[in-house]
Amino acid sequence: MDDLSPYGPVLLVDAKAHDSIEMPRGIAVLTSDRVPGLSDHFADLGIVAALLRPDRYCLATATTARDTANMLARARQLGLAD
Q1: For residues 35 and 33, what is the distance between their CA atoms, to the nearest angstrom?
Q2: Distance between CA 19 and CA 2 in Å, rounded?
Q3: How far apart are CA 8 and CA 27, in angstroms?
Q4: CB 14 within 8 A of CB 38
Q5: What is the pLDDT of residue 3?
Q6: What is the chain's alpha carbon radius of gyration, rounded to the nearest angstrom?
Q7: Is the dihedral of CA 6, 70, 14, 16 positive or negative?
Q8: How far is C-alpha 49 from the geometric centre of its chain's CA atoms?
Q9: Rounded-to-integer distance, Cα 80 and Cα 30, Å
Q10: E strand or H helix at 81
Q11: Concatenated DSSP letters for 16-78?
Q12: Distance (Å, rounded) from C-alpha 13 to C-alpha 9?
């Protein structure tokens, strides 16, 4: 993960949901087309996105693109994104 994204918050998102989400500045975004197996893992969990803290612990997950937008709005309120 650190090879793909520097230290900081990371949004892992299914490529199918990516196009319908306004991506914030300040959060690295990795889509399932760049991370092998991510789509299958997300499908098993029933989610389309996960927001990771800079220490790579999971901060939040989202089950829809709308939930992802709400999650990112909350990340902005917390000062994790612009």
Answers
A1: 6
A2: 24
A3: 7
A4: yes
A5: 57
A6: 11
A7: negative
A8: 5
A9: 16
A10: none
A11: HHHTTS-PPTTSEEEETTTSTTHHHHHHHHT-SEEEEPTTS-EEEEESSHHHHHHHHHHHHHT
A12: 13
Give 1-16 pLDDT, tens digit per residue. Answer: 455 566 789 999 998 8
Distance between alpha carbon 22 and the CA centroid of its chain, in Å?
A: 12
pLDDT tens for each residue of 36-82: 999 999 999 999 999 998 888 999 999 998 999 999 999 888 888 77
- Reported pTM: 0.85
Q: In the structure encoding, which two tokens stand for residue 81, read together?
A: 């994104």
pLDDT at 79: 84
Nearest C-alpha neighbor of 53 from the set 6, 15, 10: 10
How far apart are the C-alpha atoms of 32 and 43, rounded to whole Å?
11
- CA dist 81 and 26 (Å) reads 5
Pair 19, 55: CB distance under 8 Å: no
Q: Which residue has the tokens 């389309």?
A: 48
